[in-house]
């Protein structure tokens, strides 16, 4: 049952009518404060003021930050490191989070760039929470070695 706008005590009285109470309206992800009496816009409120969860750009998957995700995808040349597809890429773990924790690895070790791999939907979902099979891990490592050699050769040609 909706009882109308919920009253919110503003930082300072309304600039137009002097009322101290406002209402919060979310527009495009921003919490906007409006005077409850005259409807005048007052200010954009931070999430901490309105009690809503603060937005973050950190990935929701196991603490992998966007810049690290980008590094992993660039290293893989924008392609799945197992099958070579270039669409719907995820950043997965060669040693899964569950297996790593069982083996006593720290979060930093589990989320290290060397344990992260670019995978398409099918490969990532196919492996699931299991550690990557050794033959696939070897394939990934060999591809990374080839990539590094090619990168060094190209850098030498440019010099």
Number of helices: 6
- Note the beta-strand portion: 15-25%
Poorly predicted segments: 56-60
List the domain count as a whole number: 2
Enumerate the strands of the largest sheet in spatial order, edge to edge or round the barrel.
1-2-3-4
Q: Spell out the helices and strands N to C.
A: EEEEHHEHHEHH
- Helicity level: 25-40%
For this entry, what is the oligomeric state of its chains?
Answer: single chain
Q: Based on CA inertia axes, which overall geometry fits?
A: elongated
User: Mean of residue pLDDT?
Assistant: 83
Instruction: Give the distance, in angstroms, between the N- and C-terminal Cα atoms.
Output: 70 Å
Structural class of the helix and strand makeup? Answer: alpha+beta
Instruction: Please give the largest β-sheet.
Output: 4 strands, antiparallel
Tally of strands: 6
Rg is 25 Å
Key features?
6 helices; 35% helix; 2 domains; alpha+beta; elongated; 159 residues; 4-stranded antiparallel beta sheet; two-stranded antiparallel ribbon
Briefly characterize the structure.
The chain has 159 residues and is α+β, with helices and mostly antiparallel strands. Helix content is 35%, strand content 19%.
């Amino acid at each position: 049952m909706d009882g109308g706008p919920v009253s919110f005590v503003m930082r300072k009285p309304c600039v137009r009518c002097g009322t101290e109470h406002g209402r919060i309206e979310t527009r495009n992800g921003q919490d906007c404060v409006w005077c409850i009496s005259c409807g005048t816009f007052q200010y954009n409120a931070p999430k901490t003021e309105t009690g809503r969860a603060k937005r973050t750009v950190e990935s929701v998957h196991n603490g992998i930050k966007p810049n690290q995700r980008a590094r992993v995808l660039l290293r893989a040349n924008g392609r799945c490191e197992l099958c070579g597809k270039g669409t719907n890429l995820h950043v997965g773990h060669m040693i899964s989070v569950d297996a790593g924790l069982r083996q006593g690895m720290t979060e930093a070790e589990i989320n290290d760039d060397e344990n992260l791999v670019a995978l398409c939907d099918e490969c990532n979902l196919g492996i699931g929470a299991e550690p990557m099979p050794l033959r696939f891990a070897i394939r990934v490592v060999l591809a990374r070695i080839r990539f590094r050699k090619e990168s060094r050769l190209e850098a030498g040609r440019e010099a």
